[in-house]
Amino acid sequence: MIINRFKPVGTTNFGDAINDYLWPKLLNPRFTQIPGMFHGIGTVLGARMPDAPRHVVFGSGTGYAGIPTLDSRWKVYFVRGPRTARDLGGVASITDPAILMRDYAPAREEPTFECSFMPRWDSIDDALIASCEGIGIHVIDARWPVEEVMQHIVDTDLLLTEALHGAVVADTLRVPWVSIYGNRGHEFKWQDWCWSMDMIWNPIDMAEFTLDWARRNAVPQLSALSILDRRYSDMRAALSTFNRDLEVM
After folding, report:
1. Is-contact 81 193, C-beta < 8 A?
2. Are 70 and 118 within one domain?
């Protein structure tokens, strides 16, 4: 199968790159021998999908480009959250599959950074980095390799993040986070994921507040550990089912 993921031209993006990092470690080797498309991490489900003999949905979401029409070629194991589940007609939802990165987390010791900011891959530039450094906020670049981003998230005491998967992975690794709302058009996926973890999306709007204000005044979020454990267990069960199914596809 081909992994359907967003690939920014000339660079990479942490959330999407997790697909390439994670699935080869977790999926039955037969995965690469079966024709079709695999929709894992990312907002990749839309009205105009690539033509394929088989579509497997394992945690992806809607939110950018309409809703796909499901037919006999589609197998939905689960989707990212309840908003996507509603779009697709009541299919099962668990949460974002990036919580499986819990198994590959670096050790969390004494944080190196009091506060870090993770912009979206398309928001970061030299001026932003300089302004953050000027007020003592460390910048985590979503274009770095997956393991490097993971290490920097673990090494921070508080993560301000414009990137959804900064929050997903921080939450998974038990690093308190604050959603920074700067780049418009991504509300659906944030709500979809937050609702999947029994949280309310409570972003800080950068049109009204500064990063320094957010660092000092925003209330950090973290899902309940009992919810995280339950979603992780459900996802591991779905993974086992999918790997068994791959044997007979």
Report:
1. yes
2. no
